[in-house]
Specification:
single chain; 343 residues; mainly alpha; Cytochrome Bc1 Complex, Chain D, domain 2; 2 domains; two-stranded antiparallel ribbon; 12 helices; rod-shaped; disordered N terminus
Length: 343
């Protein structure tokens, strides 16, 4: 075969060589033709060599419509067949219909999800934040030094600050135990419910320390039972203090039902006389008493603390003072009248 255009369609051959069409001896829907192999090469005119069956028009029309729908063009023949055209007129090629898009078949195609919105750009840092990020950092060794600065400062302050004076002996113990007395006589001895101690008032009432020790030990209850009206200096300037003259003095000694030991009572009395009352331990008037009763080396305080004797013993022992001299104190004993100051 030399060319595809030289090959004749079977329908065109039937329509072109249709002398037998419509003859009495041959039906219209069945035509017998025979064509040799040379008829398809174009070297010889076609000849009838075989039996060909004519295709119905409705199938040809359907074929043309389908070919036009898929974009392959229509048929070369006329739409209404060879009966409407002269037998001698050659077949004309029908103009191809424009391609028609095929109808989609099957489920609809999936669409891509919408792209996520891009995050907004971060806000610029404030000027102070930018400056802090660009500032040079403190080196690690400097941080260690700064961490030790509080310790160094504490040690320096301790080195330049004088250590507080620690009071020991009777005055130290008396300052601790005086808290229970401050409610009536004031924290600084200014008085309140009870008589004041400050400004020498306690020394005016008790010029002799033994009288004060006895009154603190037994309290107003025992003095009332003993019938003692004046517990201190009867010659006190402004008049003597009378039992029950200003409230009730609770007993403090253990034998009277109180809560203080004998050496604690001595400490409280020394605190009231020398710390609050203002007695000068270096003066001629009070130096001997302070050395015997209230100093840190007081033999009386040491004897009471060691339990060698009691404030209510009938006879007091003989003591040896710091200077080596022997001395003896007055027996505290039970409640008795107060004594005046020695002249």
């Amino acid at each position: 075969m030399k060319s595809g255009r030289q090959v004749l369609d079977a329908r065109q051959v039937v329509r072109k060589f249709s002398p037998l069409r419509g003859s009495p001896s041959t039906p219209d829907d069945q035509v017998s033709t025979r064509m040799s192999s040379e008829s398809f090469t174009g070297t010889r005119p076609p000849s009838i060599i075989c039996r060909v069956t004519e295709i119905p028009e409705h199938l040809l029309k359907r074929s043309r419509e389908r070919r036009a729908a898929i974009g392959q063009g229509g048929d070369d023949g006329a739409t209404d067949g060879a009966a409407s055209a002269p037998a001698s007129t050659p077949a004309t090629t029908e103009k191809a219909a424009p391609p028609v898009a095929a109808a989609p078949s099957g489920p609809p195609a999936r669409t891509a999800p919408p792209a996520p919105e891009s995050a907004p750009p971060p806000k610029p840092d404030p000027a102070y934040v930018t400056a802090a990020k660009q500032r040079r950092k403190v080196p690690w060794w400097a941080m260690a030094t700064l961490g030790l600065m509080p310790v160094w400062g504490f040690m320096y302050v301790r080195s330049v600050t004088e250590a507080p004076e620690v009071v020991e002996g009777p005055l130290g113990i008396g300052a601790e135990e005086y808290g229970s007395c401050a409610a009536c006589h004031g924290a600084a001895g200014g008085g309140g419910v009870g008589y004041p101690f400050s400004g020498g008032a306690v020394l005016d009432t008790f010029p002799n320390i033994e009288d004060q020790l006895r009154y603190v030990y037994w309290g107003t209850g025992e003095y009332n039972l003993a019938g003692v009206e004046i517990y201190g200096n009867p010659e006190r300037e402004g008049g003597p203090h009378l039992t029950n003259g200003l409230g009730v003095m609770p007993q403090q000694g253990e034998a009277a039902g109180g809560g203080l030991t004998d050496y604690e009572i001595l400490g409280v009395v020394c605190h009231e006389r020398y710390t609050l009352g203002g007695a000068d331990p270096t003066s001629e008037e009070w130096a001997e008493e302070f050395e015997e009763f209230c100093s840190e080396e007081s033999p009386v305080f040491e004897g009471l603390e060691a339990g060698e004797f009691s404030l209510v013993d009938e006879e007091a022992p003989v003591f040896v003072g710091p200077s080596g001299e022997e001395f003896q104190i007055e027996v505290v004993g039970p409640p008795v009248e107060g004594s005046p100051a020695e002249s």
